[in-house]
Structure formats: structure tokens, C-alpha cells
UniProtKB/TrEMBL annotation:
PROSITE patterns: AA_TRANSFER_CLASS_3 (PS00600). One of its GO terms (cellular component) is mitochondrion. HAMAP family: BioD. GO terms for biological process: biotin biosynthetic process. Gene3D superfamilies: Aspartate Aminotransferase, domain 1, P-loop containing nucleotide triphosphate hydrolases, Type I PLP-dependent aspartate aminotransferase-like (Major domain). This is Adenosylmethionine-8-amino-7-oxononanoate aminotransferase. SUPFAM superfamilies: P-loop containing nucleoside triphosphate hydrolases, PLP-dependent transferases. Keywords: Aminotransferase, Pyridoxal phosphate, Transferase. CDD domains: DTBS (cd03109). It is found in: Mitochondrion. The keyword Calcium does not apply.
Length: 802
């Protein structure tokens, strides 16, 4: 989806039903049409859902009132579209039900067998009639209208209140329209009690991420409290948030005593106030565009991005190909809404129109890297948001040592009963994966010491058993758990890879086949092969450990099954099983880093469950909160916990963070865990399950090496395609950048690289299978196109590092 920002577009919400939304729309439309100074352009009013049709027909009402009640209208009473070419004005209805109830009830009645006819349900414009609402048709319709450069004003009127259900399935309006997130004009309730309904509606919109630049009250019979209610609401709100609270939009003539039921008596002359109101909105709209421009221009000067070589972004000013910042305006479900500034061809334009050589466009991109691997239930999940809001309202943040609050208590029990089931008895809270791992290390070393693996005189020599290709975070201690690489050795003189780092065997799809065996779902022959491999691995690992007898080893530290930052590589499960068993025989504490792998990321609850081994300690983060807030935990067995009991305070685990057990984070995690409880392996094994066939096909392409596919993780390793690529690795890197750029520009998929790999993640509890399938198809196509294209990557798509 791409759209440009030419005109003013907004959605009109109601604090309740019957608050005068349609009257407000009619007044604004009328004022707009009568404004002789208005920018030339079309006006579109859209009523996506209409019930009580055709006696209630908001599009017709707005059309008549805006043009004047005496205007002759050619279209029939039940037309879905009214058009005045003379005024470049149209009013459109998409779905209409005869039943004068909520859209939910009307749709349910239609579904339940009410004669399905033109009268009970009108055809959605341009689509097939269906009793159940097709949300994608409605949203697409809105998005298509937004792409229309000829529109100068576009209003979308909702049905009923902000939280009225829109369809038989019960989806709430505020959720239904969230994907397009138009700025909202909230029509407040000007009756007695209206302060409460208006504020509640406002909060419901704001907590879902909507901008609400204006609250307006229609004034008229029965709506006499508008002044009072507006003043009360204005006093509650931060003007930065909602600059306009307008009580004076006199959309109805109070003196004429016209009732809302007889709207045909006509609007009074409200054009001046309505025009002023539209002007306010226009200013807001322009200020927003200026903020976007400022963000795009200034962020390079004030931000210091992670994993980013800023020097590479400083292109010579003459170059048009300066690296662009990705401005994420919002995110919902699987998608980002991106704002881009694009060059505009002004050569044929008159000087007046040539106000700027660039323009802003908006695109929707699939978040194919799961926002640094954190996303599982979709961005802006309403249930998670409600839980978070509740915890913030209840606690904000509170003290934790020797205190308990309900979200942390509940979460601890749930974690011990799920990921910690059968082995863990304690939960230690922190706020990111690296620190959760460092806490795990402190725990493991104490346990190792208690088990007699080293004494304090050798404490500074203690190392770990780890794996090449591993990653456990960017804090100093976590870096020491991985062998030297660009990411640690050159980053700090303090780095000291402390341990014995073994080279694990990997498993992947090569040229259509798993080698050695798929990590999950094995047949009998594969099981037999595993037994043989296990014996061999165990023998060589035991020899290796024996060779390093002199090094005190305080922990085995590993990412179960998949090394994330190491290239999304799947380790042969049998190897890790043998490694764990060999370390256990030597009483070395086992630490699992499940920061990336847990909570169904791999198509199973944890990596541990695929390995069929239990750790002494395990760290979790990322998907723990469904990707809504930062939170991490380290779980431990009772033996680890008791290793910290003692007479002295120094015997305790003296570790804590300001936001330990952050209540809102715990509440988000509880809500996410409730969703995870309903997941199954079959539905979360996306790339090595339902989509295995097209994934296998990727691995047969020229220039593609190993393909890793497990759960919601897909990674394609690029290999030299030509002798030139073989000789010059920059050419391979350029092809990789082309793949990413094609995925973004032609398919709207945001992917990132890892080394020579391109990886894609979907959200295990959110992404519909058809979108994951689209992603594989897009990747397939991008690999093909990038292989034949000779274009070198331009700087606009500077390759990110991770
Ligand atoms: C396996 C693993 N451990 C630890 C970390 C560090 O987590 P955080 O970035 O939350 O500090 C990561 C981050 O990607 C990870 O993948």
C-alpha cells in the first residue's frame, strides 16, 4: 500500500450512538463546498457500514444537506453512491443492512438466514455481497481512496460508538479500523452524562494508538450540555494531545426546534464555524507532516543507533542517494506504517505548485524481522494493551525486593508451570536478555563452586563451555560467553572470551533435503541415525572436555537448537543433547539461553522441549511479553537457589535493576502467556510445517546455500553465484542488499541480513498462514531478481549489520 498526502483525511467517531456524527459530517461537507478559497479538489464522504437501510441513509443525508435540501438528486433512495460532478463531491456507502440495529446484530441476522437479497444487504462497492463483513474490502477501499491525489477532503464516518461491534464476529470498531489509523474527529456526547461517555471513547481511541486532533459537539435540541461538556473535557486533556475541543459547531438550529429524527428540516448556517474547524484540522495535518519531515531530517543528528556505522550514512551532500531513515509512524498486527520522503518531479509544474521538490508517502510494510525478534501476537494487541494500561493505572512502577504484586506473582507461577515445568522453582526478574544471561552466569558460577568445580583461589580463571557462533548479548559479561568476533573483540579492551568454545555441527535444508535430519518430527530411520551420531558426538565432546581439564569450567552456556544472531542456524539437536549429557556427567551447571528460542518461536514451547533436556538455569526475554514491553527473567532450579543461602548478606544474589519485575511488563507477559497457552505445535511450525514445500524450493536456487526453517524462523544463506562473486565478497554483499531492497520496494516486506544470510520471522501467534506464504513467495522472487540484476546496491539501502 502506498499513499501520498495531498488532502485532509479523517475518521469521524461517535462517543455514543445518536450524538450527531452524521450532522457533523454534513456540516463539514457543506462548509467545505461553500468555501470559495478551498484548495481545488474532490470531497469524498464514506459510510462503510450502514444499518436500517434505506430509511437510515447517512450518505444520502450528507449529500443532500451539503448541497442544499432543494437540490435535485437523480439517484434513487437506496443508491450506494451519490455523485455531484459539478461539485466534485461524492457520498458512498459500502455495506448496508436493512435491520435497524447495530452492524453486529444486522450482520448476524443476515447470516442467520434472513433472506439474502439486495434489500437486506447491499453489495459492497466493487465486491461480492456477503453477509459477514469483509474487513479487508473496507480497509482496501479506504486505502485506495487515500491514494487518490485529487481528493482534498475525505471523511470516513463510523457506525455507533467507538467500541460498538462492527460485524457478526464482534470485532470492535476501534480495532476494525486500526490498520489504517486515520486521525480521528470524535463527536462528543452533548447530553447529560456525556462527559463520561466522551472521555471513555477518547481513552479507548488514544489507547489504541489513534491521533484524535479534535473533539467536537453537535449542538441542537437535546444536546444543550455541549458547552458545559466541552469545557469539562478540555480541562481534562493535554492540549498537545488534542488541540481542538470545539463546542460551537452548531450543526443544528436549536431555535428551530428541529429534532434529530427530522433532519430534513435542514442545517442552519454554520459554515463559518465549520470552515474554521476544517482549518484547524488542516493546520494539525500540516504540522504532522512537518514533524515527519523534521524527524526524517534531524534523526541522523541526534540519534545514535545500535549496530549502525553512522559514517556510512554521511554521503556527499551532492548525492541524491543519501541513506534514508525509516520513519515508522505506527505498527499494527504484522505491519509497520512507514512514512517516506520521495523526490517529486516538478519539471512540468507551475511555480505555485512547485512548493517542494519532495513529498511524503505512506507505505505498509510487513515486519519481517519481528522488530528484533520480539513480536509474537502482533503489534498493538488490544488485550495486551488493556492489561498494560491496567497495570500502569494500578501501580505505575513499584519496589520489588521483599515485596510482591499480583502481576509478578501470577507470572512467576505461570512460568514455573510452563517453561520451567519439571525443573525450575525460582524466578528472578530483570529487563533484557543480556542481563538475564548475566544473572544466569552468576547463578551458575555459584552452583559450580558449591559443587566443588573450582575454589575461590582459581575464581579468575573460571570459564564456560560454549559454542562457536553463539550470541548472548552485548553487556560485558555476556560478550565473554562467545568466542572473539567483530562484535566483542573490537568493541572493548576488556573482552576476554572466557571458555572452551566448541564448533557445533549444523543442520539445514540443502538443495531440497534436510541434512543431517530435520530437527523435529523424525521417522524411525532418522531416529536410528540419531543414536549413532549421538555416540560419536558424545565421545568427541568428552575427549575435548578432558583435554581442557586444567580450565575450571563454571557453566555450559548454549542457545538451544537455534543460534539467532549467529545466522539463524539450526544446530544438530543430537549434538547439543550429547554436549549437555557430557557436561552433566562432570557436574557442570547447564544454562540455556532461551531469549530467542522460547514461547513457540521454534514451533515448540521452548528450545529445551525440542532438545528433550532440562537446564539448571534458563534466561527468557523477547517474546515473553509478546513484544509489548521489555522484560526478562532467569529461572533456576532449587539447587541453584539454595546455593545462595548463607549467614552473610554477601552470600545472597546481590543483583537488581530499577525496573525489576516492572508490573506493566509482568501484566503484558501474563496476557501473552494466556495466548500462548492456546497455541499448538502444528500451527506454529510454519516454515518447517505447512510451508515446507516452497521453503525447500528456495534451497534449490542458484546462489543459495543452506536454508534454515524452523517454526516461525526462515533463513537463506547466500553463496557465490559467479566466479566474480567468489573472488569479491562485496559483490555477494551487493546481491544480498538487492534482495532486501526488492523485498522492501516491490513486496513491502522489511527484512534484515545477518552475515551473508537473509532471514525472515513471522509472529507465531499472529501471522496468518497466507501472509507467511506470501513472504516465502516474495523472497523467492527477490532472490531470482537479485541474481539477474546487475545493479549495484545504492546507498539508500545501506546494508544494516543485524
Ligand atoms: C540468544 C540471545 N541471548 C541474549 C540476547 C540479548 O537480549 P537483549 O537484546 O534483550 O539484551 C539476544 C538478543 O538478540 C539473543 O538472541
Amino acid at each position: 500500500m502506498q499513499r501520498n498526502f495531498y488532502g485532509l483525511a479523517f475518521q469521524v467517531w461517535g462517543a455514543n450512538t445518536n450524538v450527531g456524527k452524521t450532522l457533523v459530517c454534513a456540516a463539514l461537507a457543506r462548509a467545505h463546498l461553500r468555501d470559495s478559497d478551498r484548495a481545488r479538489g474532490a470531497l469524498l464522504y464514506l459510510k462503510p457500514l450502514q444499518t436500517g437501510f434505506p430509511s437510515d441513509h447517512d450518505a444520502r443525508f450528507v449529500f443532500r444537506q451539503a448541497l442544499g435540501t432543494d437540490t435535485r438528486i437523480n439517484e434513487p433512495e437506496n443508491a450506494l453512491e451519490y455523485v455531484s460532478r459539478e461539485h466534485a463531491f461524492s457520498c458512498r456507502t459500502l455495506y448496508a443492512w436493512r435491520l435497524a440495529r447495530s452492524p453486529q446484530e444486522a450482520a448476524a441476522a443476515a447470516t442467520a438466514g434472513e433472506p439474502f437479497s439486495h434489500a437486506s444487504l447491499q453489495r459492497p462497492a466493487g465486491g461480492l455481497a456477503s453477509p459477514e463483513l469483509d474487513s479487508s474490502t473496507v480497509l482496501e477501499h479506504i486505502e485506495n481512496a487515500l491514494k487518490n491525489a485529487g481528493l482534498s477532503l475525505f471523511m470516513v464516518e463510523t457506525a455507533g460508538g467507538v467500541l460498538s461491534p462492527v460485524s457478526a464476529s464482534g470485532t470492535l470498531q476501534a480495532d476494525f479500523y486500526r490498520a489504517v489509523r486515520l486521525p480521528g474527529v470524535l463527536v462528543g456526547d452533548a447530553r447529560l452524562g456525556g462527559i463520561s461517555t466522551t472521555l471513555a471513547a477518547y481513552e479507548a481511541l488514544r489507547s489504541r494508538g489513534y491521533d484524535v486532533p479534535a473533539i467536537v459537539f453537535g449542538m441542537g435540541p437535546g444536546l444543550e450540555s455541549a458547552d458545559r461538556n466541552a469545557a469539562a473535557i478540555r480541562a481534562q486533556l493535554d492540549p498537545e494531545e488534542t488541540p481542538i475541543v470545539e463546542p460551537y459547531l452548531r450543526v443544528f438550529d436549536a431555535h428551530a426546534q428541529a429534532s434529530l429524527a427530522q433532519p430534513a428540516q435542514g442545517l442552519v448556517s454554520v459554515d463559518e464555524t465549520a470552515q474554521r474547524f476544517i482549518e484547524h484540522l488542516r493546520h494539525w495535518w500540516c504540522r504532522r507532516a512537518i514533524r515527519w519531515q523534521d524527524m526524517l531530517r534531524e534523526s541522523d543528528q541526534v540519534l545514535w543507533w545500535p549496530f549502525t556505522q553512522h559514517q556510512a550514512r554521511r554521503m556527499p551532500s551532492a548525492s541524491e542517494e543519501r541513506a534514508q531513515t525509516t520513519l515508522i509512524d505506527s505498527a499494527y498486527g504484522d505491519d509497520y506504517t512507514i512514512i517516506k520522503s520521495v523526490k517529486r518531479d516538478v519539471s512540468g509544474m507551475s511555480p505555485q505548485k512547485r512548493t517542494s521538490s519532495s513529498e511524503l508517502t505512506q507505505e505498509r510494510w510487513f515486519d519481517g524481522c519481528g522488530s528484533w525478534w520480539t513480536q509474537s501476537v502482533g503489534h498493538g494487541h488490544p488485550t495486551l494493551n488493556r492489561s498494560i494500561g491496567n497495570a500502569l493505572g494500578r501501580y505505575g512502577h513499584v519496589m520489588f525486593p521483599e515485596c510482591v504484586h499480583e502481576p509478578a506473582w501470577l507470572l512467576s507461577k505461570r512460568l514455573l508451570n510452563s517453561v520451567g515445568n519439571g525443573w525450575a522453582s525460582r524466578v528472578f526478574f530483570s529487563d533484557n536478555g543480556s542481563t538475564a544471561m548475566e544473572i544466569g552466569l552468576k547463578m551458575a558460577f555459584r552452583l559450580a563452586q558449591k559443587r566443588g568445580l573450582f575454589d575461590l583461589s582459581r575464581a579468575s580463571d573460571v570459564g564456560i563451555v560454549g559454542l562457536e557462533g553463539s550470541y548472548h548479548g552485548d553487556t560485558l559479561g555476556a560478550m565473554d560467553c562467545s568466542p572473539s568476533s567483530t562484535f566483542n573483540q573490537l568493541q572493548t579492551p576488556w573482552y576476554r572470551g572466557r571458555g572452551l568454545f566448541l564448533k557445533p555441527p549444523y543442520c539445514a535444508i540443502w538443495n531440497g533435503d534436510w541434512q543431517p535430519d530435520a530437527p523435529q518430527g523424525l521417522d524411525a530411520a532418522a531416529q536410528r541415525r540419531r543414536h549413532e551420531r549421538y555416540r560419536e558426538y558424545h565421545r568427541s565432546i568428552a575427549e575435548e572436555l578432558a583435554r581442557h581439564e586444567s580450565m575450571p569450567l563454571g557453566a555450559l552456556v548454549l542457545e538451544p537448537v537455534v543460534q539467532g544472531a549467529g545466522g539463524m542456524r539450526i544446530i544438530d539437536v543430537v549434538y547439543q543433547q550429547a554436549l549437555i549429557d557430557a557436561c552433566r556427567q562432570r557436574a557442570i551447571p547447564v544454562v540455556f539461553d532461551e531469549v530467542f528460542t522460547a514461547f513457540w518461536r521454534l514451533g515448540a514451547l521452548t528450545g529445551a522441549s525440542i532438545l528433550d533436556r532440562e537446564p539448571d538455569i534458563a534466561a527468557y526475554g523477547k517474546l515473553l511479553t509478546g513484544g509489548a514491553l521489555p522484560l526478562a527473567v532467569t529461572l533456576s532450579s532449587e539447587e541453584v537457589f539454595t546455593a545462595f543461602l548463607g549467614e552473610k548478606r554477601a552470600d545472597a544474589l546481590l543483583h537488581g535493576h530499577s525496573y525489576s519485575a516492572y508490573p506493566a511488563g509482568c501484566a503484558a507477559a501474563n496476557a501473552a502467556l494466556s495466548i500462548y497457552e492456546r497455541l499448538t505445535s502444528a500451527e506454529t511450525r510454519v516454515f518447517d510445517g505447512a510451508l515446507l514445500a516452497p521453503v525447500r524450493a528456495l534451497s534449490t536456487k542458484p546462489g543459495v546455500g543452506a536454508v534454515s526453517a524452523i517454526g516461525s524462523v526462515l533463513a537463506v544463506q547466500l553463496t557465490p553465484l559467479t566466479s566474480a562473486e567468489q573472488a569479491d565478497e562485496r559483490l555477494l554483499a551487493a546481491r544480498q542488499t538487492r534482495v532486501l531492497s526488492i523485498a522492501r520496494q516491490q513486496h513491502g516486506i522489511y527484512l534484515r541480513p545477518l552475515g551473508t544470510t537473509v532471514y525472515a520471522l513471522v509472529a507465531p501467534a499472529q501471522t496468518p498462514l497466507h501472509r507467511a506464504a506470501d513472504l516465502v513467495r516474495a523472497l523467492d522472487r527477490a532472490l531470482d531478481l537479485a541474481a539477474v540484476s546487475k545493479e549495484t546496491a545504492n546507498a539508500a539501502t545501506v546494508t544494516p549489520i543485524v
